[in-house]
User: Fold this.
Amino acid sequence: MQFTGSKLKALIRPSLTIIFGFLGVLVARGATPPDILAITGKYFLVVAAIAFGVLGFLLPDILEIAGRSAIAAIALQVARRIPTPTAPRLSVPKLSFSRRKKKNGKYINPLVVDTSVLIDGRISDVIKTGFIFGSLLVIPSVVSELHTLSDSADELKRAKGRRGLDILKSLKSEKKVKLEVLKEDPSGDTVDDKLITLGRKLRGQVMTMDFNLNKVAAVKGVSVLNLNELINALKTAVLPHEILTIQVKSHGKGKNQGVGYLPDGTMVVVEDGAEAIGKSLNVVVLRVIQTAAGKMIFARLQE
Assistant:
């Protein structure tokens, strides 16, 4: 015959109640002073028997609660010592939204500068606009060419060389670019060859205004940043039959041709305009021709 927990308690409770009641009487008789026992008489023994009997009646429940608490505490300690398995973490590549830098060593967006760019001087204005950034690299041969020009007996060449040296000096103070004059020339027979060699080595761009250097660099697979092309792209857009107001400055190459210029420097060739030199007048655009040197506009006098 099987006994459940509740049935077992029902059988044990009466026995424990009687036993603890008897123990209560014994404890009361032995621990209570005779004077107090004489005064209280049997009432004290009855109270002791009832109190200890109630304790015996509740003893199974107390032991059950204590046992459960002890088991729960032991289980908690065991659980803390067992490592908790964690789910495997997914490896997610980090995304970077910063501007990419060319992997060519210590130079960021290397731009190899040609002598023609420094002599022209407009690179300084372009840099101030923020369209050009990175490292401007100047080889010793370019600096030597500027020195040679600045010491020339020809006044025009001397002026060009000095302007190139002045532009080179002013670029050192530009915060949007970092100018570095290299200590050694790259390999090559001519200055153009050295510029192309350096551009290929650094995977950078050669900045020039020289038409021939532009073509040679393109053939050899070196990227070119031609300031002439940039300047021409930003010139005023003119359409045939449009009317312009210009001042005829000089004679043209053709018969009775006059030559004038737009504010951006675009040349305007005026048919039958030779007699109007020094005058401002309206002309009608006939055609626009794009050449390697820039844009040319052919026009006639407005009737």
The first strand starts at residue 110 and ends at 113. The beta strands are 110-113, 134-138, 177-181, 205-208, 223-226, 243-251, 258-261, 267-271, 280-291, 294-301.
